[in-house]
Amino acid sequence: MQMVKKNSSITQGQLMFFILQAQIGVGILSLPHVLQLTAKGGAWISVLFAGLFLQLVIIIHWALCKLYPSDNIYSFLPKIVGKYLGNLLSLIYSGYFLFTAGMILVRLLEIIHKWMLQETPKWAVLILILVLSIYLVRENLRIITRFFVITSFIIVVMVILSLVGYMNVDFTYIFPITEAGWVNILKTIKDATPAMLGFEILLVFYPMVEGQSNGKLKAVSVANLLTTLFYTFEVFTSLIIFSPEELPLVPEPMLYMLKAFSFHIVDRIDLLFLALWFVITFTSLTAYLYAGIVGLGQLFHKGQHKKSLLYVPFIVFLISFIPDDTFTILYYERMISVAFRILIIGLPIFFLMIGYVRKKRREQTI
Amino acid sequence: MFFLKKLFTNHQKKKPSEETVGLYSSLAKNLNYLQTNLSHSSDLKWEQINFNNKKGILIYLESVTDREKIEKKVIYPLHKKAEGVIEEILPIAQFKKIAHLNKLPLLLVKGNCILILEGLHEAYVMGVMPSYSRSISEPSNEQVVRGAHDGFIENLTTNLYLIRHRIESTKLKVHYYEVGEITKTKVAVLYMQDIVNPKLVAEVDRRITSISTDTIASTGIIGEFIETSPLSPFPQILYTERPDRTAVNIMEGRVAILTEGDSSAMILPVTISAFYQSPDDYNSKWIIGSFIRLIRLASILIAFQLPAVYIAVVGFHPEILPTELIFTVQSSVGKVPFPPILEAILMELTLEVIREAGLRLPSRVGQTIGIVGGLVIGESVVRAGLVSYPMIIVVSLTAIASFVVPSHEMSTAIRILRFPLMVLSALFGIVGISVGLLFILIHLCRLESFGTPFLAPFSPLRMKDLKDTFVRFPIWKLNQRPHDIHPQRMTQEDYSRGWDADGQKEQ
Amino acid sequence: MKKWYVVLIGFCVLLFLSGCWDQELLKNARLLSIAGFDKASENKLFSTYVFHDQPMSESQEPKDEIKSAIGRTPRETRDKVDRKLSNYFRAYKNRVVMIGEELAKKDIYPILDIFYRDPHSSLNAKIVVAQGKASDLLAMKKVGNTLISDEIPKLIDGSEEKTLVTAENIQSICPVLFDPGEDILLPYLTKKETDIECAQLAMFHNRIFTGVLNPNESTMFLLLKGSPGKIARMTREEIDSDNSSPITFDVEKAKHDMQVRVQPKGKIVVTLHADWKIGITEYAQNHLNEQKIVDRLNRKISEDMTRLARQTIKKMQEAQCDGFGIGRRIIAFHPQVWKKMKGNWAYHYKKVQFKADVKVKIIHSGVIN
Fold first, then answer.
1. Which 3-state string (H, E, C) describes chain A?
2. CA atoms of B142 and B242, how far apart (whole Å)
3. A57–chain C nearest CA distance, Å
4. Cys-Cys with B130: which of B66, B181, B396, C34 at CB 3.0–4.6 Å?
5. How far apart are the first and last CA of chain C?
6. ipTM entry
7. Closest CA to C2 of B339, A82, B231, B38
């Protein structure tokens, strides 16, 4: 199946922005809070380790994609494990992407509800965001990437806004760094990784990127590096602004710290930050949504992903409309975390081994 | 659905090709044929002429010919010589011999006079068009402080002269098209043969030749026919009446389209930055030019976001206002009976009405409208407690800011988009504004003007081209043409400041 | 396909038009300016709320509306006041939270919880302790010709700039409130006949009000802590000189250095060293061009300031107020020591040995000598 349409391929620089935008997303607001619970003052080190760990996963994914340079995951899975199992797995991957998109939406709605629109019914905001994402996801990869690239400047603005927090910091809050012990710091990696997901989209878009495979790895690695640095910065900032006993009480420290600052024309910079964060999260949402519907399009609609948009919005609506309390959300998060371990870490290693053996065998027969 | 389709689709009928008709030997028959084919129009005149001892008839449409020219250059020489070879006698440059009678009516309409001699099978066609045109003056909607003060007029030849005069190059190519089944409007496509992207020229050619319409009234109509996304509110073609702007754009590798009878040129493909730039930016020093450009950008943002932001603040998130400000705003908002969105729509619509009213009226009455509309309504509407002062300030600021946008098309697009943003903001506050802006941004990402992404060079990102977008770098730093149009030659400037020994190091 | 989307979008727009759910009109808000809390009988809370009302027309004067209620929690009193109020009670522009002395002697966090929890609340409101009852101060309604809702915030702002009180707001005290290794100091408002003064600091220990520093001590604390305002001015007697005369000086540049050391036996020694460059703003004895006099003054003022610093620290130790964050340093750099002292930090803090000295140098003396 020749998937690469000439007018929908993207360059490696664009791939970098794409992965960056997919990675930085919903987790950023609550990451410092989550990590500090177990890693204490060393939370920022956990982020660095998580980045390092994900880099290994990225290399596995890249190696897997490299075996089938002109196929994406939905078309090489049947080649590796056989047609029926392969298509089933494709469906599962597609479902995973859609489910993750739904999960992002759940968190997005939760935060909007908590911080901005207390009275507005959930379905109204949900429909609004879904219509917006459909409008983007209908397009081809190139146009989506264009949107991602232009909204990337927001990350810079977010960093600048966070710098405002440095007016009132106490560096001693992070000491002693290893208060929780190295074991806990390493354990926290598993809490940090969900916030940094997004690179696995490479499995879907690898063949649509121009250029050599090494360059693609470089692009994804740079994106991962930037994400890690950005997250480390934000976590570090939160750690030195909030005292170790206060942080467990504040689930969204990044927003909370900005709430108190006032400039002469605007108070409440947190609302501005929230609006920016909305865009960043929206890009992650659409990245996953697009990855999901590309799969459905390839499985059921002969590669026309637009057609699946007739029913996908309803599925995503349901996924994100159902959870109405924190515990369901936590249950969802656990599911994603399990799916991540199996689908993103476990299976790719397995596929890589099979694919490698097949390739060797093919070379021998030739 | 079928009914709707029937309502909206265009039925394209192929016209039957005309049969060729030879000249009749009888003069009366010929004349009769022409009269019939010109709908017995009253301005068709004819005169009897004898030449070479043959009876002849000179036919012309008095409305499109210069009577004096006919007298001097046709009738007088023919009378004087009375015989000889016609081609040698008549001092006329545009001279043709035509054997087909059916071609003559059209030639008459185009300002030719026709001489038919009895018994001959060819008619003599002589161009005697008058040259009426207004003088070259500065376009009133694109004035600059300093720089060239000429503008296009309604005559294509003059307009072409204005451009050729600026680009005295053999590589400047003019390609004529005749568009309009009936009007046969002359359309000229201009580009630099050695710079322009050939694919672009082919695409323009493809789109222009596919136009099948009876009339072409103006450049704008062609624009609407060939635009990539006609449903978008944003203009994807730059209209300008300035020859200098057109010439500069042609030199960047873009294509200009001029139409007979219209004083504006279309430039394509363009990107979003073309719509907030003005030739003035290049006429002044680069720091000043950049500053003014940033002001214009800020105005664009104000023009289409300010009312929405105000509604969100007053109606959803008043806590954004700092303490000192909030009391001032509150005291003014307090007695207004409407929600902010109604207030805003009311005032914005009033403003648009005043603007439109002022536009159509002669300038003296226009001033009165300005006073009545601006001062009287503005003041009394607040006094009456219908609208608050901050809202008046917001609306006036928006109006002023929207006038700053140099392109009229862009300014209109922004004015229109303000309203959906206001509605979204009234429903969801800041979230609504975010969503609205994202809608617009996604739309802009989808837009392409003749294959060029509308948002270039921001996205796809190209650092080198950013030099001439938000700010204008010094001219000697702009070594390359914009990349978005894929010109054949990238370099446009090289080392002009080579004389500067210190500057050399910098370069 | 396209038409299908048009229908969908049209449908959504129709749905949305049914309501602006979160509309929060500014014109319907009664804006709270100052919230005062006092102790009432039976563990109840007496809240006084000052609303600032801006008049609709320009000819009228702005007014303050003061309402009060008794309840168990701030939220309850707020709701009770809301019942007595036209339009809606809105606290998002609250500028000052004032806590009465008696109430502050209990944990103050329950009073502040409502401000931390509400997404709309203004976290940059000042928080102060009132001498006596907050309601008494607020009942003044006007100080001179200024409304109390305007007077108190500006008074506090001014005192912050004059290095008289700490520049704290609800958000900035929050990390410290939760930190076992540091204590807060809040501005302490006193009523002086018809005026209100803001020049002292209320010391806290673990969220409980324990004592007051006088104006000079407050300034000294802020300078030692390294958070001076724009001006830091002090007037002192030039002690033990033949013809003692008052001298006023501004601290122009204050360098400070604090070192916390734990001695092997577990004794904590804190060295506080301050280096000030001062300018004389008033000194009727003149002759500040003579090296000898300046040297003598430098020495005298240094001695005096060192004395003041020691006095301040002693007072703080007595009040168990760890305003310098000694505990914080120990947590961060001597976690093992902290583990032992954690349970009884107040006791250990009192035993901390402070070695404070202030060195002063006159760098200018105005336009005359």
1. CCCCCHHHCECHHHHHHHHHHHHCCHHHHCHHHHHHHHHHHHHHHHHHHHHHHHHHHHHHHHHHHHHCCCCCHHHHHHHHHCHHHHHHHHHHHHHHHHHHHHHHHHHHHHHHHHHCCCCCCHHHHHHHHHHHHHHHHCCCHHHHHHHHHHHCHHHHHHHHHHHHHHHHCCHHHHCCCCCCHHHHHHHCHHHHHHHHCCHHHHHHHHHHECCCHHHHHHHHHHHHHHHHHHHHHHHHHHHHHCCCCCHHHCCCHHHHHHHCCECCCCECHHHHHHHHHHHHHHHHHHHHHHHHHHHHHHHHCCCCHHHHHHCHHHHHHHHHHCCCCHHHHHHHHHHHHHHHHHHHHHHHHHHHHHHHHHHHHHHHHC
2. 7
3. 35
4. B66
5. 88
6. 0.91
7. B231
- Least Cα distance to A204 among A301, A291, A143, A139 occurs for A291
Report the chain C residue with the minimal C-alpha distance to residue A135: C5
* Domain spans in chain C, listed from the N-terminal domain onward: 25-213, 215-369
The length of chain C is 369
Smallest Cβ distance to B428: which of A11, A128, A268?
A128
Domain boundaries, chain B: 27-127, 156-270, 284-452
**Chains that contact B by 3+ CB pairs under 8 Å?**
A, C
Beta strand pairing call for C45-53 and C63-71: antiparallel
Question: Which of B314, B319, B341 is nearest residue C92 as measured by Cβ atoms?
Answer: B319
The structure tokens 């209620």 sit at C69
The answer, for C25 touching chain A at a CB cutoff of 8 Å, is no
How near does any CA of chain B get to the CA of A61, in Å? 26
Q: Which CATH superfamily is domain C215-369 in?
A: Nutrient germinant receptor protein C, domain 3 (3.30.300.210)
Q: Which residue of C has its CA nearest to A270?
A: C119
Q: Is B439 on the interface with A (CB under 8 A)?
A: yes
B232: left (phi over 0), alpha (psi -120 to 50) or beta: beta
Q: Which residue of B has its CA nearest to C24?
A: B316
Domains delineated in chain A: 6-352 (1.20.1740.10)
Largest CA distance in chain C: 100
Q: By the CB < 8 Å criterion, does B455 face chain A?
A: yes
Query: Are A242 and C123 inside 8 Å of each other by CB?
Result: no
Distance from CA of A264 to the nearest CA of C (A): 13
C123 with A260: Cβ contact below 8 A: yes
Chain C positions in Cβ-Cβ contact with residue A262 (cut-off 8 Å): 124
A279: which chain B residues are within 8 Å (Cβ-Cβ)?
434, 438
B426 in reach of chain C (CB within 8 A): yes
Interface test with A, best of C123, C169, C177, C184 (most A CBs within 10 A): C123
B333 near C CB under 8 A: yes
Cβ of C331 under 8 Å from any chain A Cβ? yes
Whether residue B333 and residue C27 make contact (CB cut-off 8 A), yes or no, is yes
Q: Is A244 on the interface with C (CB under 8 A)?
A: yes
B331 → closest Cβ in C17, C22, C54:
C54
Contacts of A14 in chain B (CB under 8 A): 460
The one-digit pLDDT tens for each residue of chain A (366 residues) are 344 445 678 888 888 999 999 988 888 888 888 888 888 888 888 889 899 999 999 998 888 888 888 888 888 888 888 888 888 888 999 999 999 899 889 889 888 888 888 888 888 888 889 989 988 988 888 889 989 998 988 999 989 888 888 887 888 888 777 777 788 888 888 888 888 888 888 888 888 888 888 888 888 999 999 999 999 998 898 888 888 888 888 888 888 888 877 777 778 888 888 899 999 999 999 999 999 998 888 888 887 888 888 888 888 888 888 887 778 888 888 888 888 888 888 888 888 888 888 888 877 776
